Amino acid sequence: MQKFFVLASLIFGLANIASAAPDSGTLEQFSLPSIDGGTLDLAQFKGKTVLIVNTASQCGFTPQYDGLQSLWEEYQGRGFVVLGIPSNDFGTQEPGSKDEIKEFCSVNFDIDFPMSDKLVVKGDGAHPLYQWLRAELGNGSRPKWNFYKYLINAEGKPVTYFSSMTKPNSSRLRKAIEANLVN
Question: Distance from first CA to last CA of the chain, Å, rounded?
């Protein structure tokens, strides 16, 4: 009888562990190499709505930098951040160094939103941030080209994603941003 109670306790305990939802963390758990050198600690965005975008300088979608800068300028006073993450994963369309990327963005688009250094965003070698995004939003959310966009709410949780085809000034993206702003 005693063995039954021990076994039942073990089974009940394991069932409780299995049913507990794992803490998948928040955006704040990540840091990235900054395009300016040093580390870009994403904890600084706690309480803000963040749009993460994998970017490239030699892509047909590169003109979206204009729209991303406009979103940043319009909403940053309401707790919104655009975070650019250059990547050379698609069509080798971001071959430059971080200094070249930064100069390109500044000269051509007057970008002043935060940007990381170049990162891997796809496959098994993807930066842990992108592995987390895929785990949170599902396999279909993995970036399939440059300028994929991921919306993170003020609690640091991924809300949704948008394909490269979704322009920064699209009503769908703007509505999602506005619905997640805290100010």
Answer: 61
The single-letter DSSP state of residue 59 is S
Which of 31, 59, 79, 154 is catalytic? The answer is 59
pTM above 0.90, yes or no: no
C-alpha closest to that of 178 among 151, 157, 142 = 151
Which stretch of DSSP H or E encloses residue 33? strand 31-33
Residue 105 annotated in active site: no
User: Domains of the chain, with CATH numbers?
Assistant: 27-180 (3.40.30.10)
Q: Which of 112, 123, 43 is nearest to 87 (CA)?
A: 123
Give tens-digit pLDDT for 29-66: 999 999 999 999 999 999 999 999 999 999 999 999 99
**Alpha carbon distances (Å) from 21 to 18, 58, 130:** 8, 42, 21
Rounded distance between C-alpha atoms, residue 42 and residue 50, angstroms: 10
CA distance 17 to 13: 6
Give 123-165 pLDDT, tens digit per residue: 999 999 999 999 999 999 999 999 999 999 999 999 999 999 9
